[in-house]
Amino acid sequence: MAGKGKVGIIGSGLIGRSFSMLFASVGYTVVLYDNVPTQIENALKETEKELKALEAKGLLRGKLNASQQFALISGTTDIKVLVKDAIFIQECIPERLDWKQALYKQLDEVVEEQTILSSSTSTFLPSLFSKDLKHQSNVLVSHPVNPPYYVPLVEVVPAPWTKPEVVQKTRAIMEEIGQKPVVLSREIEGFVLNRIQYAILNETWRLVDSGIVDVKDVDSVMSDGLGMRYAFLGPLETAHLNAEGMTNYFERYTNTMYAVSQTMGPTPKMEGPTAVEIAKQLEVMVPLDKLAERRNYRDNCLTQLSILKKKLNE
Fold it and tell me: Which residue numbers delimit the 3-hydroxyacyl-CoA dehydrogenase NAD binding domain (predicted)?
């Protein structure tokens, strides 16, 4: 059952637990590392509970049952136990550059030559925490979308010194565990997903700030409009289909798009009265004590959407 080899996961929060489940779903032996023993115990309990809940709903990924998958996952507070014989390590600690730099320095001392060191960071360029390492050519970013078990995209981002074969192997591993990797040719601030997400958030801010629409309506534009088609097609293919091909789209809309874009104004800094107002409206839509309930709704929607996409694409 556990013939695929060993994968290490660092950090036992939501992202770490999700990755543990993804690797176990295809038969990897998974060791979950945290420096707080109670964190490990809680993470293992939560993981077992989630695997069984997914199985009960018929949503469990992979061919192994929930008990078989959970049997592949163990925990440790010893970094040497974590790295021994690991082919791949996915780091999922909080977004603090000083913490990541300290951790990778620690890993660099004990990790084996063949082990790929992969970070879940959504913020930091891989060069920032790998530049002084002996094993720097084995370090890269594999940035998932939250929650990774329900959203398959992973951005694979190499540092300038990451070996091409490490990038290729990481892509293959991500595909093997059922994710959808996209590989960046080089590191860039914000990677790709957040650069696009920030462009959307910046314009939604401007529209609310200038009183054109409220928070509920601007979100509806995405969830009931753009998002419905973007769930199946990207913005470029959408444009290609909305005209007689992309050349025709450019002929029709280039001038309009440019003129409208010129009116969008400078990049806003999201603070001050508008930040207070947006937060206030969102707390009416989803009160803070209902966030967990709404996240469950989101995860269920994403799961059902994944099933539908898989069915339609078969």
Answer: 6-186
- Domain ranges, residue 137: 6-183
| All residues at 6 or more sequence positions from 99 whose CB lies less than 8 Å from its CB, including other chains | 93
CB 151 within 8 A of CB 302: yes
- Which residue in 68, 98, 84, 66 sits closest to 5, CA to CA? 84
Q: Is the pTM of this model over 0.70?
A: yes
| Count of domains observed in the chain | 2
The span from the CA of 148 to the CA of 119, in Å, is: 14
Regarding whether 301 and 177 lie in a shared domain, the answer is no
Unique residue bearing structure tokens 């839509």? 285
CA–CA distance, 225 with 232 (Å, rounded to integer): 13
Mean pLDDT per 10-residue section of the chain, whose length is 314 residues: 82 95 98 94 96 92 96 97 98 97 98 97 97 97 92 97 98 97 98 97 97 98 96 96 97 97 96 98 97 93 89 88
